[in-house]
Amino acid sequence: MSESASRPASFLDRWTRLSLARRIMLAAAVWGLVVLVGGALALSALYRAQTLALLEDDLDQTLVTLTRDMSQGDAFLPDGRVTDDNRAFFASDARYLTQYSGLYWAIVGVNEEGEPTGDLRSKSLWDEPVPATPELIKRALAAPGVTQFSGAPGPAGQRVHAAAKAILIENRETPLVLIAAADRAQNDAAAVRFRNMLLGTMIALFGGVFAAMVAGIRYSLQPLKKLGHDIAEIREGTRLKLPDDYPSEVQPLTQELNLLIDHNQEVVERARTHVGNLAHALKTPIAVLKNEAKGETQLDDVVRRQADAMQTNVEHYLKRAKMAARAEALGARTEVRPVLDGLARLLNRLFDAKGIEVTVSGGDGATFRGEKQDLEEMVGNLMENACKWAKADVAVTITEGAGELRIEVDDDGPGLTPDEREGALKRGVRLDETTPGTGLGLSIVTELAELHKGVLELDAAPGGGLRARLRFPTR
Question: Taking a C-beta distance cutoff of 8 angstroms, is the pair 231, 363 a contact?
Fold first, then answer.
């Protein structure tokens, strides 16, 4: 086994062997999944960003409310220190009064170094740390009046989204940092539900679109399947040319194939004509040589023997050239039984004096993928050889099935040994010089069978004698 045969097929090799329909469907499936799933993920990310933006708008509005309430309340001592005496006055939403409700606010005082010095907070925050990271407070102090946002750990293990804004007030040298935070669990859960719903919808949509696409591809490729079926009929001989009822995209191909079929037939006809001309051209010179060499000299004997050899070889190769030209013809198809019945009648008359009876059985409706002359040449040689060696009976059996045509010629003669059967198939070999012939018969049958993708086999007949078997593919 070669290295290339033992090496496993690569992805490219497997891809190139895929049918057009599978290539289109596979490419469409991959691209459709990428687009739909990618689109679903992008839309879910957009939805999450939008819900987060709405949450940030609410937090920023809470900071505005805190700022307004501070200007109306009395939450600070004259020196600017933070007190919680009037804590309930700020952001009076009831959720800010419920412990760990998910909505929180805080007012954080800082010293000159920006470190927290105290805070005023909503009751919902209870005694938990202010839900703001040091980085968020620093960003707010670096840009007073501008709201900054960040995720932060919240009370009771909540994950909150926090907003912070630094403001300056009278009677206080350092700014205050206003903080509003909200538990983002509901927003995250809503985003996950939206993503799952969107993915399910997209996958269902993809399934429907893909099913419609598969049906469309199969319908669109029907002309190609019909084309393959019509070409098979031409090869089998049941159709001469391709019809004109193909779609416009396929018609250029069918037209070129029809032209190729016409060209093939023209080439075969020209080959037959040239072979015939060559045969006539060579017959006369060979006949002249043989007529001129009628003397008894050594030269005459050499010329006669060489002329006979030339004639034998010319007949062999001309016959082979004719066979090859016929075998290349597209669409040739011959019904087997009538041809063999005709050969049997002829041989029964020729060998009547010898008492030989030739019978043919089976093969009703069996067909040979080739021309009648080739079938007559092959089976005729086998039946004639069987009649020369048979004692009384020659039986020809035709069977067709399992993709194969079998023609078996049995005689009741002396038969051949395995070594003799092997040698009989060689060109020019004659096992008995007492019988007439050139020794080319079985060789010609073998070569002609190979031209038609068939094989000639020699075996022992069940009742004694020799069995010659021809096997041809039927498709």
Answer: no
Q: Tell me: pLDDT of 357 over 90.
A: yes
**In sequence order, which residues have a C-beta less than 8 Å from that of residue 473 and are 6 or more positions away?**
369, 403, 404, 405, 453, 454
**Backbone φ, ψ for residue 98 (5° rounding):** -100, 130
How many Å apart are CA 213 and CA 207, to the nearest integer?
10
If you write DSSP's letter for every residue of 190-253 in order, what string do you get?
HHHHHHHHHHHHHHHHHHHHHHHHHHHHHHHTHHHHHHHHHHHHHHHTS-SS--S-S-TTTHHH
Identify the H or E element spanning 35: helix 20-72
The SS3 of residue 370 is coil
Predicted pLDDT of residue 162: 92
CB 121 within 8 A of CB 154: no
Least confident span in 59-73, 247-261, 372-386, 458-472:
59-73
- Continuous segment of H or E residues that includes residue 450: helix 441-451
Find all residues with CB under 8 Å of 348, minimum gap 6, and list them: 356, 357, 358
Residue environment code for 207-241, b if the CB has 16+ CB neighbours within 10 A, otherwise e: eeeeeebeeebeeeeebbeebeebbeebebbeeee
3-class SS at 88? Answer: helix
CB distance 440 to 427 below 8 Å: yes
Model pLDDT, residue 433: 43
Q: What tens digit of pLDDT does each residue of 428-458 get?
A: 444 444 444 444 467 778 888 888 889 999 9
Q: How confident is the model at residue 318 (pLDDT cuts 50, 70, 90)?
A: low
User: What length does the chain have?
Assistant: 475
Treating both helix axes as pointing N-terminal to C-terminal, what angle do 298-327 and 441-451 enclose, rounded to 10 degrees? Answer: 30
* CB 348 within 8 Å of CB 393: no
CA 212, 217, 220, 225 torsion-angle sign: negative
Q: Which two tokens mark 243? A: 């019809």
Q: Which long-range contacts (CB under 8 A, 24 or more apart) does 48-56 make?
A: 48/187, 48/188, 48/191, 48/195, 51/187, 51/190, 51/191, 52/161, 52/184, 52/187, 55/161, 55/182, 55/184, 55/187, 56/149, 56/161, 56/163
- How many whole angstroms separate alpha carbon 455 and alpha carbon 470? 6
Q: What pLDDT was estimated at residue 39? A: 85
Position 140 pLDDT exceeds 70? yes
Q: Considering only CA atoms, which of 375, 376, 377, 381 is closest in space to residue 394?
A: 381
The conformation of residue 283, written as its DSSP 8-state character, comes to H
| Burial degree of 20 (CB within 10 A; 0-12, 13-18, 19+) | exposed
Q: Could you identify the residue written with the tokens 């909200």?
A: 182
